[in-house]
Amino acid sequence: MRYSRFFLPTLKEVPKEAEIPSHRLMLRAGMIRKLSSGIYEWLPMGLRVLRKAEGIVRREMDRIGGQEVLLPALQPCSLWDETGRWGLYGKELFRLKDRKESDFCLGPTHEEVVTDLVRRFLRSWKEMPLLLYQIQTKFRDEIRPRFGILRGREFLMKDAYSFDRDEEDAGKSYWRAYEAYSRICRACGLDFRAVEASTGLIGGRFSHEFMILASTGEEEIAVCSCGYAANLEKVEFSPVLPDYSGETAQSPEEVSTPGKKTVEEVSQFLGAEKGRFIKTLVYRKAKELFLVLIPGDREVNSKKLEEFVQGEAVLADEAAIFELTGAPSGFAGPVGLKKKAKIIADESIAGMRNAVSGANKKDFHLKNINAGRDFQPDVTLNIIRPAKGDRCLKCGGGIELMRGIEIGHTFKLGTKYSVPMNLKYRDQAGAENPVVMGCYGIGVSRLVAAAIEQCHDEKGIVWPIALAPFSVEIVALNYQDDDMKKTADRLYEEFSKEFEVLLDDREVSPGVKFNDADLIGVPWQIVLGKKVREGKADLGDRKTGMKTEYRLEEITGIIRDKLIRNGESSPDRA
Q1: Which end of the chain is more exposed for a tag (fewer CB within 10 A), N or C?
Q2: What is the distance between the alpha carbons of residues 243 and 348, in angstroms, rounded to a whole number?
């Protein structure tokens, strides 16, 4: 592709709306443009990368026996009513009516549709295992679309569905999909982790999220060197906490702490360790107020809390705190509440002795309180966030926290959809049984953005070879020069027979060409300058930033060797 003919509107300035690197760089590199909130147009450069990701996903799904279908984006309410999800999905579901006032939605996922398809044709155990997949636009009415492609209202997704005779076969299908997803991430050249995860609204027995590691990732995950990894909704660990269990219980003592509200302030004022404190937080779910108790040097795992209360839990405002405790925020505690409320305590609270908490009285705290004697939690569970140094339950090693971007999710559904939708088959004895299902989604457009979050520097995108829009960019610093033009055209024709090549033949300054080349991130840059007359050019590696001078006759072989070793073999036919 010649740059002069390519629709590539790059931007010099960083768009104000862009909060994270992938959003900024996709806009600046001319990959996407915003049409409306959470809705983006894909331009030629972006679409090239999107198609690369799509091709990798399709190849790996075909490899495990997947058969591609294309299901309607517009789905009737009646199917969702069969599983009860029409009322459960909430405001993220785009709902609409046709001219007959019948209810429909724009599909965020296709469990009901594909189950309906298969129940109309599948009859015998001989027809399984069956794996159907599609790559299609999905819709979710996000309350706050942000981060560009990462959290939009319209996105490209691959969703696959497996159908098996029993749990054993369903397990085999699940792990085949798991391995396929691992290969997809590796084929894209990305550092990733597969982590245990909650099943959420999709449902099922268990699931894994596939996380692309990036410091800007919106999700936090806990990992161990033994291979264990989980998101914060599912993580299990042994916290390393101060041990006060051997102390003799003392009598409660009210102490004055004027103006001291935070654990940090009170611990310094009383000369007590933060681990000695019971941090008492007042939460609200709808109209219900409840307390959450955790050690003073820890934070609440909000993911686990919301999973436990089955909904959104938010910290109560000042008025609600006073209503429950009789004191302003900063002085709440589990002893002597003004009104009765459910108390949810972290497991570690039971082992604390002579702890400190708020006295439910302005400017006062209580010393020497003990669970079981002075207060009784209604629920005890692991509700704190893991911290560095906590121990893995599988091997005893140290837990490490990382940030990641979810690009895929695999679910073992069981019979969650087949039973309510009457998807059955006849076994070898002629008896009817429910089909056992699995579901496997991967955000294709999200994969592109996540790759940029992991692979960029201060100059622009640094594409892995497998996702790069072009393999080689020929940067002719003065294309109007006859010698340079002839050399550039010759190299372009030669490389285009084997690889995807972008030739910068524009009448702009060398500085603009260099800046744009680094911005769009093509892996290899052939820079043609004054030494073309001597038969020499510079070969630039975008990843390392290194430029090495070679004779022109050497460059062809070097590029071919580098690209073939990295698996590049698809020529640019544009």
Answers
A1: C
A2: 10
H or E segment and range at residue 25:
helix 21-28
* One-letter identity of residue 523: P
Strand partners, 75: 105
CA distance 211 to 225: 16
What is the rounded average pLDDT of the residues 477-492? 94
* Buried/exposed code over 271-288 (b: 16+ C-beta within 10 A; e: otherwise): ebebbbbbbbbbbbbeee
Alpha carbon distance 152, 72 (integer Å): 20
Q: How far is it, in rounded angstroms, from Cα 168 to Cα 548?
A: 56
CA distances from 45 to 15, 42, 545 (A): 18, 8, 22
d(CA 417, CA 431): 20
Q: Is the peptide bond before 129 cis (omega within 30 degrees of 0)?
A: yes
Task: Give the strand pairing for 39-42 and 32-36.
Answer: antiparallel
Nearest residue to 15 via CA among 146, 103, 106: 146
Structure confidence by residue, pLDDT tens digits, 320-377: 999 999 999 999 999 999 999 999 999 999 889 999 999 999 999 999 999 999 999 9
What's the DSSP call for residue 79? H
CB proximity list for 25: less than 8 A, separation 6 or greater? 31, 452, 456, 460, 461, 519
Round to whole Å and give the CA distance between 355 and 333: 11
- From the number of C-beta atoms within 10 Å of its C-beta (0-12, 13-18, 19+), residue 244 rates as middle
Strands 130-139 and 67-68: parallel
The pTM score is: 0.87
**C-alpha to C-alpha distance for 315 and 324, rounded to whole angstroms:** 13
Instruction: Read off the DSSP letter of residue 126.
Output: G
Residue with tokens 């599912």: 234
| Domains delineated in the chain | 3-236+401-453 (3.30.930.10), 253-381 (3.90.960.10), 470-565 (3.40.50.800)
Long-range contacts of 558-564, Cβ-Cβ distance < 8 Å, separation of 24 or more: 559/472, 559/495, 559/499, 559/524, 559/526, 560/498, 562/524, 563/465, 563/471, 563/472, 563/499, 563/524
Could you tell me the pLDDT band of residue 572, with boundaries at 50, 70 and 90? Answer: very low
The H or E element that residue 434 is part of is: strand 432-434
Integer Cα distance of 95 and 101 in angstroms: 12
pLDDT in tens, 228-250: 999 888 888 999 988 887 889 99
**Residue 569: C-alpha distances to residues 340, 491, 500 (Å):** 69, 17, 9
Over the stretch 63-99, which tens digit does the pLDDT of each residue have? Answer: 999 999 999 999 999 999 999 999 988 889 999 999 9
H/E element, 87? helix 85-88
| DSSP code per residue over 128-189 | -SEEEEEEEEEE---SS-BTGGGB-SEEEEEEEEEEESSHHHHHHHHHHHHHHHHHHHHHTT
